[in-house]
Write a structure and sequence with these properties.
This protein has about 400 residues and is α/β, with parallel strands linked by helices. The chain has two domains: about 140 residues, Aspartate Aminotransferase, domain 1 (Alpha-Beta Complex); about 220 residues, Type I PLP-dependent aspartate aminotransferase-like (Major domain) (Aspartate Aminotransferase, domain 2). The chain is about 45% helix and about 15% strand. It contains 14 helices and twelve strands. The strands form three sheets. It has a seven-stranded mixed sheet, sandwiched between helices. It has a three-stranded antiparallel sheet with strand order 9-12-11. Strands 1-10 form a two-stranded parallel ribbon. Strand 3, helix 6 and strand 4 form a beta-alpha-beta unit. Helix 5 runs parallel beside helix 6 and helix 5 packs across helix 10. The N and C termini lie far apart (about 55 Å). About 50% of the residues are buried. Bound molecules: pyridoxal-5'-phosphate. Pyridoxal-5'-phosphate (PLP) binds next to helix 5. The site of pyridoxal-5'-phosphate (PLP) has 14 residues, from helix 5.
Length: about 400
């Protein structure tokens, strides 16, 4: 039998992060004392009132199909959130609830990009963006940044990359994997260029609430009506409410794009899980009191990890302004990031994600969504490993 795999599927890169993750899990299962810096999700539990709302909906029999783009109550709660937090006015019909922010991203790319189109993606990037672009038949155009600019593209870089084929620019601030955050002025400058050139912006704002030191998150859609009309905001509940396993994300878009995504979703996944959506309503409309507590904890861990990393010979690390990742530069230690992470896991039992997974081979991603005790232990071991390499 010839199991011919479609070109679409065959064009994808297998997830590098999964190989290390699988090895780390296997080592843990064997009883080894592995420290995990790989987590792409909060280590806190979902707040109780959110779980209660979903449990009540389940108990009440809210277990059937819902409208494929989400229940009206949740689409309204999302529209209210954009008004309250961002001063943005969306009608519920411009809001689509999907099965995770990742699904929202994929829907946006499928609805707007096709063969011959180019999509500009700053690197280091969230690893799914280029693969989603390829699945849509379009071509990723990578704009390389480094720690020297705190991983931010400049307006000049963006302008130079735009061609008549450019369809979409992907902006992710705060960023996974670097934790970098663009300032108001920088976001506006990038947005201005997209408006001038007629390029759509997919703004992934899933880390909106996770910013430190009083920094502000600004949505590119807020600068003018033109910016609003060029922007599709992708968002979700996973990071700010620790709801990664619930699979609930959302987007807000100009009406024609929302309509197209509604059609795509109605023929693919249909609605996100019915009772999970009731939890989503409780998350957005209910108490936000957990957030300052989580932020204070993340900030403490970030401060400690950032300082420790910079004390390790051969490693330097810019501080993150948002999300829950640090992205230290390991280039001076002379190993490719995949080798570095494989040996770090083997020798010191520390799991981190190689930067190459995000398009940046001189770095590692360290998630501090884990306990302070784990962070201390893991960094002790990383230091020992780095010293052994530095000789
Ligand atoms: C976590 C994450 C998402 C969405 O995750 P879901 O679990 O699918 O909601 C989207 N973008 C980035 C950059 C992320 O890190």
């Amino acid at each position: 039998m010839n199991y011919r795999i479609s070109q679409r599927a065959a064009s994808l890169s297998p997830s590098l992060t999964l190989a290390i993750d699988a090895k780390a899990k296997q080592m843990k299962a064997e009883g080894q004392d592995v420290v995990g810096f790989g987590a792409g999700e909060p280590d806190f539990d979902t707040p109780q009132h959110i779980k209660d709302a979903a449990a009540a909906a389940l108990a009440a029999g809210f277990t059937k199909y819902t409208p494929s783009s989400g229940i009206p109550e949740l689409r309204q709660a999302i529209a209210d959130k954009f008004k309250r937090d961002n001063g943005l006015i969306y009608k519920p019909s411009q809001v689509i609830v999907s099965c995770g922010g990742k699904h929202s991203c994929y829907n946006v790319i499928l609805a707007t990009c096709q063969e011959g189109d180019e999509v500009i993606i700053p690197s280091p990037y969230w690893l799914s963006y280029p693969e989603m672009v390829k699945l849509a038949g379009a071509t990723p155009v990578i704009l390389t940044t480094s720690d020297k600019t705190e991983f931010r593209v400049t307006p000049e870089q963006l302008r130079a990359a735009i061609t008549p084929r450019t369809r979409l620019f992907i902006l992710n601030s705060p960023s996974n994997p670097t934790g970098s955050l663009y300032s108001r002025e920088e976001i506006q400058a990038l947005g201005d260029i997209c408006v001038e050139k007629g390029v759509l912006i997919m703004s992934d704002e899933i880390y909106e609430k996770l910013v430190y030191d009083g920094a502000e998150h600004v949505s590119v859609a807020t600068f003018s009506q033109a910016h609003y009309e060029h922007t599709i905001i992708v968002h979700g509940l996973a990071k700010a409410y620790s709801m990664t396993g619930w699979r609930l994300g959302y987007l807000a878009a100009p009406e024609p794009i929302a309509k197209a995504i509604d059609a795509i979703q109605s023929h693919s996944t249909s609605n996100p899980t019915s009772f999970a959506q009731k939890g989503g309503v409780a998350a957005l409309n209910g108490s936000q009191d957990h957030l300052p507590i989580w932020l204070a904890e993340y900030a403490k861990r970030r401060g400690y990890a950032h300082q420790r990393l910079n004390q390790i010979p051969g490693i330097s690390c810019v501080n993150a302004k948002g999300a829950f990742y640090l992205f230290p530069n390991i280039g001076k230690l002379g190993l490719k990031s995949t080798d570095f992470c494989a040996r770090l896991l083997e020798q010191e039992k520390v799991a981190a994600v190689p930067g190459i997974a995000f398009g940046a081979d001189e770095y590692l991603r360290i998630s501090y969504a884990t306990s302070m005790a784990n962070i201390e232990k893991g960094l002790d071991r990383l230091e020992k490993f780095a010293r052994s390499l530095a000789g």
